[in-house]
Amino acid sequence: MKIVQEVSLISVGSFEESNDWSIIRNEIREAISLIVNPPGTFSFTINPAKHGNGVKPIKEACMIALRERFGWSLETPINYATKSPGKVDATKIIDNYRFALEWETGNISSSHRAINKMILGLLRGVFLGAALVLPSRKLYPYLTDRIGNYEELEPYFDVWRAVKIEEGFLAIFVIEHDQIDSSVPKITKGTDGRALV
Amino acid sequence: MKIVQEVSLISVGSFEESNDWSIIRNEIREAISLIVNPPGTFSFTINPAKHGNGVKPIKEACMIALRERFGWSLETPINYATKSPGKVDATKIIDNYRFALEWETGNISSSHRAINKMILGLLRGVFLGAALVLPSRKLYPYLTDRIGNYEELEPYFDVWRAVKIEEGFLAIFVIEHDQIDSSVPKITKGTDGRALV
């Protein structure tokens, strides 16, 4: 799988220039690049059937790579306040600070909630940085219908950029298939994410 | 239908103290209070069947009241920028300024998108004020499963309150049934909202 865009949605303070971010960014890049399809190949080829592929096995492959190669924790429960907005997909602790990563498999409005959740963590000082992984509009038509995607979220960036934060960093990674081929099997719900990494 | 809470989520500038808001607020209050069930009664009684009632006919009743009694426009297309986030449920023009109202019938993450959409309109100066109507947690179990509700959105208020806005106002109206009665008909998809107002 390739990354076609990396966007710094929020960057207040020095985290973006830090060695910590350089390490974490490389781990995220590496985990995404490790996702392949079909299993056993060296790149990510997708069957271009309309809404023909599930996104959960693809996410799972990335999560396995983050945990097993780079020691991230998965499905970390987060308490920001008395009311908890729930878990984040993956977190990594560096220098006692927590970095959070979300890979949304829901529809476009879920991506709004995911960003709001990470910003709340930045406001509360629970995360020093966070990242969201999103499919590009080119990958979008081959995935589950109405999946969150970069181009549909972009018109709202000014809202999040206007949030007053003392310190914090939020990046978006936009991912895309390497090639299409209608002869490769579709990624079904039952596909084991472990096979794709 | 009754309003159990009115929250000023964002209030920058003088709109909250204005005569315009006093008029608009009364129109919203009146439109909500006009929603009845079963048709022809004088209050809103709901069948307390778990996820037994659709929310679209209830919303439709409020929209009809706003349009027919108070001259609001419905499903107003909005262009904030080159990319449009689409329509808002109802708008009212006062003194050349537009006030927007959203009544979300989607799941909780749709409520996140609805608030982000209204805040974008405030940032762009397209709206002077906006309001979101949400069911309370008490009404929630009797409506479509996973519908957006006030209590689940509240933990995120600090995110929206931290948005730097030069001028703008965003209110949330929390609505609830007047009483429950398992002998009244459930509100089905086919229910005509016009009958409930």
Automatic annotation (TrEMBL), chains A, B:
Enzyme class: hydrolase
Assigned EC number: 3.1.21.4
Hydrolase is among the record's keywords: yes
Keyword entries, A-Z: Hydrolase
GO biological process, one term: DNA restriction-modification system
Record bears the keyword Hydrolase: yes
One Gene Ontology MF term: type II site-specific deoxyribonuclease activity
Top-level taxonomic group: Bacteria
Protein name from the UniProt record: Type-2 restriction enzyme BamHI
Organism: Tolypothrix tenuis PCC 7101
